[in-house]
Design brief:
Oligomer: single chain
Structural class: mainly alpha
Number of strands: 3
Radius of gyration: 22 Å
Order of helices and strands: HEHHHHHHHHHHHHEHHHEHH
Strand order of the largest sheet: 1-3-2
Length: 439
């Protein structure tokens, strides 16, 4: 963990400069603060000034029948919108497992069928990787917070079993790095395992915005990135876990390999399970990690802890505002056609693969870590806004669109002084250590 040990020492003077940076968030034109809307007196959207209407409220005029779907896709409900049904923690897990099983079965049928059916495998792969990500970043995530069944022991075994299935971080490592370190004053600092993960890959402060985008494009397909990620996952299951946990993973996957060998289903297994749970899983994880927080946005002296915490995380919603209301004729048709195409072909895939589960409302989670209504996080966040943010002096902020969320982070990173750690200087094994901490 060479980078982990050296980066803080090398960056002390530079981080002091970051402390002197004023209102870095204000330089990010992509992230809009909705303080006036959130703190305004309760009134109907039609009575609110146009400038106070956020992107989600601009879609209120669409048919009521599709509003629940829009809430799910975007991750944000309308003001005062109520869910059609309330998801429980058990039903959330059941639906996630059903999605995983159905998508894997669909991929298996497609790859064993005629080539004419292969167009559908892109969707089934996306659903498989998305379900696996949702299982890890939502269900297992809340289990390590002891916030799933109400029993810490049972939550632990849920993590141990499903992390063995997916070959992701075991309970002890996940709880230490996420609960003990990430949810502390180290959040979004050089000591945060998630940030170490990004630094290892070369997403460094002081690098120009365009260079960060080029690095992201290459990293998504880089054999080194995928090898590092896979090494970290295997290590967490087979070398760095407790003996009983290693036996769980070994026994489970030995049985799977034996069944695959006995049925001569190697190609089906590789394409229906291994590919989406490695290549696509890694891509989804990286895109999420990059924009999870406003990395290295250091607190100013005397700033209250809750203000610091609130400013480090924004809502990330998959969608965009409705076209301007004044359009008519062909211009209106083209505008709405383009909007619908982008919602279907850009924002929906990102919601299915990257911003799964309650990730769009990750800012709400950091404010209410032990809230039990996380399966309905979108509505819980909105209720928090409508209640006047009790106990929190800082309003929520939000960014619309995954690429916009990533760009907001790149704008911030590029505005900071460099650490002096050149990209790619970390040894392969040390980088795998860092990544293992961030899984």
């Amino acid at each position: 963990m060479e980078l982990c040990r050296s980066a803080p020492a090398q960056g002390d003077r530079r981080i002091a400069k970051v402390n002197a940076s004023r209102d870095v968030e204000g330089r990010n034109e992509r992230v809009r603060s909705f303080e006036s809307l959130n703190n305004a007196p309760d009134r109907s959207p039609d009575e609110a000034p146009a400038l106070e209407r956020d992107a989600r409220e601009s879609l209120r005029g669409l048919p009521a029948a599709i509003q629940p779907l829009l809430t799910w896709v975007t991750g944000k409900p309308l003001r005062h919108q109520q869910p059609l049904f309330r998801m429980t923690r058990a039903s959330f897990l059941a639906w996630t497992l059903l999605q995983l099983a159905a998508s894997v079965a669909a991929s298996a049928l497609i790859v064993r069928g005629p080539w004419t059916c292969w167009a559908g495998v892109l969707l089934s792969w996306m659903l498989t990787a998305g379900a696996a990500r949702k299982l890890q970043v939502t269900v297992l995530h809340h289990c390590v917070h002891a916030n799933f069944t109400g029993s810490g022991r049972l939550d632990r075994w849920i993590v141990e079993f499903f992390s063995s299935v997916l070959l992701v971080m075991n309970f002890d490592a996940y709880r230490h790095d996420h609960v003990t370190v990430h949810h502390s004053k180290k959040l979004a600092t050089l000591e945060d395992p998630d940030l170490k993960f990004l630094l290892t890959l070369g997403f460094l402060p002081g690098v120009p915005r365009g260079a960060l985008w080029r690095r992201l494009a290459w990293t998504l397909v880089s054999p080194r990135f995928h090898a590092l990620f896979l090494m970290a996952r295997l290590a967490s299951n087979f070398t760095r876990a407790a003996p009983y946990r290693r036996l769980m993973a070994l026994g489970l996957h030995a049985a799977v390999v034996a069944i695959v060998a006995a049925t001569d289903a190697w190609l089906t297994w590789l394409l229906a399970w291994v590919f989406p749970l490695t290549f696509l899983y890694h891509i989804a994880a990286l895109l999420q990690f990059i924009c999870e927080h406003r990395w290295l946005q250091i607190a100013e002296p005397g700033q209250p802890a809750k203000v610091v915490l609130a400013r480090l995380t924004a809502g990330r919603f998959m969608g965009e505002p409705a076209p301007p209301p004044g359009l008519t004729g062909a211009r209106r048709a083209l505008a709405w056609g383009g909007w619908a195409a982008r919602m279907l072909l850009v924002h929906l895939p990102f919601r299915l693969l990257v911003m799964v589960g309650d990730l769009p409302q990750h800012d709400w989670h950091h404010r209410h870590i032990h809230a039990r209504d996380w399966p309905n996080a979108a509505y819980a966040r909105q209720r928090d806004i409508e209640a006047g943010l009790p106990g929190w002096p800082q309003p929520y902020t939000e960014v619309w669109g995954l690429l916009q969320a990533v760009d907001a982070v790149f704008v911030l990173l590029s505005s900071l002084p460099p650490l002096g750690q050149p990209p790619g200087s970390t040894r392969l094994a040390d980088a795998a250590d860092v990544m293992n901490d961030a899984l």
